[in-house]
Amino acid sequence: MSIFKSTKIVLWPKKDIVDIYLNQKDNNSYSFNLNLWEERTAAELVPLTEFFKDHPKEVLCCLSDEVTITKSFIYDTKIEKIDKKEVKALAESSITFPLDPDYIDFELDQSLPDKTIIRAHLTNAEKLKVLQKNLAAAGLTVTRYETISELIAHSISSFYTSDYFLIYQASATEYFLMLAKASAVYLTAKLKGAAPDLQKIINYSPLYFQKVTSKLFVPQGSTIEPKSTAAMEVTPYQSSQIAASLNQPLNLPLPVLGFLLKPSVAVPKTAIIKDTQLPNNAPMENKKNILPLILVFVITAAIASLVLWMVTRRSASQQVETPTSDVTATPEPTVETPTDTPVPTLAAVSKTLKIQVQNATDINGQAAKVKAELVALGFKSVSVGNAKAKATQNQIGLKSTSESAGPYFQQQLPGFTDAALTNLKDNSTYDVVVIIGTDLSQFTSSITPAVATTVAPTKAVTKKVTPTPTKATAKTTVTPTGTVAPTTTP
Length: 490
Fold this sequence. Notes:
By secondary structure, the chain is an alpha/beta fold.
């Protein structure tokens, strides 16, 4: 069943582009070549303001994990309260931007025996203020900010609730790693190079979960090859498959799904004390006293209990027998596409894009086959040729101005579902370069008029790497007086 009840708009400001997503099946994604991380004039904001003339001006906003960094620290004792200035003192040695206590958000996690985990979200106030100024100038109101990692965790928690590492492709060339359990994120780190060593970060996981986290989700078809000496259970994932299993449009990325959906499974019952949330256009303020809410809840529960008692007595007096049945716990949902799920239509991509198709195999005619698919989709400027070097994987190169079109081509071109997305230089002659590195003969054309493309989910492929495990080297100690010796995450 669809959750679409009212219009929600998710705004995702990136380096040189703003992506906008709507919780609807058709025409649900838009992109603007606009950098909102630098102060913009009213004239530069016109495309954005024109768009929102026909849409609600209240938006949900995704924040990059470079703007808001997640780190965790551990007290070797139970604490109920900590000042933001103390959290700042713990974090500032590992943060490259000045920390403003008013832009620090944190949670006290009591899930470990005799210890307290401080999960801190540290925001670059200078960057956020520029973004807020631009959004206010465009007449927009942000009702909620969330980091990309927190939103991804919300999506993953719909089918997986244990602890895990996950690699997410933030752009054609950028990846980051997150450590999470259900919808709670413990740390994030930017990955460098095509074969990053994860072992140092893996060694931190026993501090939070009393065991080494062995589950690793990686993007399906990515070229990144993480390394570690610990045994890891590697599971590829695909955003479109997860979206399909949740009855959502296939083109919605994981962070957007996290905004539009509530977790389908309960978060583990750990004692968590949350501090204030990230502000909209002003520094954070303390939460209002919740005692009145608690009182209302208690009174409501008492009334409900009384009504239930009266109904039960009446039923007993009338000797009406109520049939009973054994109820078993609802199993965790798996990432499978329901057979009766309606297939949404992908957001349109400009048909004026200049596209080149390169055949990087020894199989003749493949470039022409892909060109025919593109022409059938409505693209007018498509050229073909042979690649200078051979390839063993399909690739889609994109200019920064066409970066958001990657998922469209992955899902519309037969055989390119797992194609790697790469960056083209800004001065490239073409907006998109499609490189064929595999045999496409097994794929038949899926293009028919007015029919949306279905991406059937595949079962998660699990492979185990079993080199000699290493023990975590990080350790935290705290004196009985409460002085913190924090664990510094990457």
